[in-house]
UniProtKB/TrEMBL annotation:
It comes from the Eukaryota. It comes from Cardamine amara subsp. amara. SUPFAM superfamilies: Acid proteases. Keywords: Aspartyl protease, Glycoprotein, Hydrolase, Protease, Signal. Coiled coil: none annotated. PROSITE patterns: ASP_PROTEASE, PEPTIDASE_A1. Gene3D superfamilies: Acid Proteases. This is Aspartic proteinase NANA, chloroplast. One of its GO terms (molecular function) is aspartic-type endopeptidase activity. Belongs to the peptidase A1 family. GO terms for biological process: proteolysis. Residues 85-438 form the Peptidase A1 domain. Residues 1-21 form the signal peptide. InterPro entries: Aspartic_peptidase_A1, Aspartic_peptidase_AS, Pepsin-like_plant, PEPTIDASE_A1, Peptidase_aspartic_dom_sf, Plant_Aspart_Prot_A1, TAXi_C, TAXi_N.
Amino acid sequence: MQRLRILSCLITILLIAAVDSTKDTAVRFQLTHRDTLLPKPHVRSIEDMVGDDQKRHNLISRKRKLKEGVKMPLGSGIDYGTAQYFTEVSVGTPAKKFTVVVDTGSELTWVNCKYRVRGKGKDENRRVFLAEESKTFKTVGCSTQTCKLDLMNLFSLSTCPTPSTPCAYDYRYADGSAALGVFAKETVTVGLTNGGTARLDDFLIGCSSSFTGKSLRGADGVLGLAHSDFSLTSKTTSLFGSKFSYCLVDHLSPKNVSNYLIIGSSSTTKTAFRRTTPIDLNLIPPFYSINVNGISLGNTLLDIPRQVWNAAAGGGTILDSGTSLTFLADAAYKPVVTGLSRYLVALKRVKLEGVPFEYCFNSTSGFNERNLPQLTFHLKGGARFDPHRRSYLIDAAPGVKCLGFVSAGTQATNVVGNIMQQNYLWEFDLKASALSFGPSTCT
Ligand SMILES: *[C@@H]1O[C@H](CO)[C@@H](O)[C@H](O)[C@H]1NC(C)=O
Ligand SMILES: *[C@@H]1O[C@H](CO)[C@@H](O)[C@H](O)[C@H]1NC(C)=O
């Protein structure tokens, strides 16, 4: 990581906005929950969601191990593809719109794309970016330092038959899917809070000539918001300031309910923030890491060993928009589930096949959400995160609710997933390394 940061200072990635004053404005993306974009929303079950998530969690843990010493083999890239929230992004000149997964765990923004391919071919109803029809598309050469060193972390390949050959990448997803393509500098057009648009020139994108995978269903690509020199959030910092924020509507919301991802400061969101905690940008890169001190149920602090929350000891916690469920290391998972289940003993337990939730129950009679104690994450600096009860009581099947935590194993990265984050407004300040949050209806 150190080397990547130093070297990336040597290359200048220009961002030029076609607006004079950007001080009072910010970039705005409309966010939609993934299920609303699928042809039959009800088909995507909690099982699918959980399956994707577990693979992703394995990848998060594996990526950490790789970063901690073991040399990563060139040409066998891995990434983590699951996410639940989509937005639209415009790429190229003239600009074309694409539906992309919003992922705070991905570094690269990429779209389904054709470059130097003969014949149109069939493209299973996905939108495709025809690179040669864009006046601003410039591939990154495979002999450049950018390709050979800076993009190594983004899984660039070492193959380079001629210096003008584009720098290629090969992402291998854990579920067997893959994204193959070339890196390019391209113009991305974004909508602004004042109703206008801004052009971000020479932004690094991936032109994916092929990709497959369940986790990318319904998407034309990915919008990378991780903490990385190449992600959109880093690129917009100089123009719109160092903040970005989002509010995730309830994952069971009807189709017509959506919200915005804001890059820059948003005056409308300020009032909602009541709590702030430090966010650690270098602890579990490229993820946004928070420091948890403990979890309580009602007024009772649970007995959880401190090393669970310690990233230096292999634990630690990330906040991730691209994982739907919440993963806890065993030593935290057990007291949480045991503690909550004490309030559910009168209800009939149900065994659900194909879900990793341990504790599910029949919620059709005698269940009152209010009888459950409030679960609180105590964060560094004294801030408390009190997720809504329906964020940890998941509707897993008709008439069945489950305690929405998944065991992550003995030593693991804890992940606060997007269901736990729902109906809260989250603002990441990359300069101040601070996360502000507060409950919100997201409307
Ligand atoms: C969404 O649609 C439902 C019914 O179709 C309607 O009652 C509701 O007001 C709509 N909500 C918004 C935010 O447009
Ligand atoms: C829940 O309990 C009710 C009443 O006893 C029963 O009719 C229903 O089938 C049960 N549902 C499940 C999913 O077990």
